[in-house]
Amino acid sequence: MTNAATKVPAQQSSPDTGRKDAADSALVTTQGSTSISDVVVQKIAGLATREVSGVHALGGGAARAFSAIRERIPGATASAGQGVSVEVGEKQAAVDLQIVVEYGVSIADLSRSVRRNVITAVERMTGLEVVEVNIHVGDLHLPSDDEGESTDAGRVQ
User: Fold this and answer.
1) CA–CA separation, 58 and 40 (whole Å)
2) Number of H helices, E strands in the chain
3) Which one of 22, 62, 104, 135 has the largest count of C-beta atoms within 10 Å of its C-beta?
4) What residues contact 57, with CB distance under 8 A and at least 6 apart?
5) What pLDDT is recorded for position 60?
6) pLDDT given at position 26
7) How many angstroms separate the CA atoms of 42 and 100, rounded?
8) What is the pTM of this model?
9) How many CB atoms lie within 10 A of CB 153?
10) Residue 96: left if φ>0, alpha if ψ -120 to 50, beta else—which one?
11) pLDDT digits 0-9 by tens, 46-86
């Protein structure tokens, strides 16, 4: 015996988009809702960006300098969200990245790879729809930049 008051409504699609109503998304159900912090999306996007070959670092010059100092402190860890800013809503997220690119890498190809990796990771892990990933290439890492960091005591050993 079914009571009309306890009947669960069928999933309804919007006529113009064919998508399910907001109440039937992965994060908002009839059994409750899930909210995801900006920091969570920021870290996922940062880690997904670092996975792409050709990305040397994330963040602007000041953020990278601060991170270098923090790495020298015992027990301190680098921030996974450095160089990443996000806006997170109930169903969607937008990501802005500041990256340093390795010299010789095609920036257009790298941008496509980073976007694809970030969108895949964020959507898979959170269920949020990523509406945009904006990438700002703030610097280019040259191979000669690493030469100054060598720890050689002299020319001859």
Assistant:
1) 17
2) 4, 6
3) 135
4) 64, 83, 99, 100, 141
5) 73
6) 78
7) 17
8) 0.70
9) 6
10) beta
11) 999 999 999 999 987 655 455 555 556 565 555 677 899 99
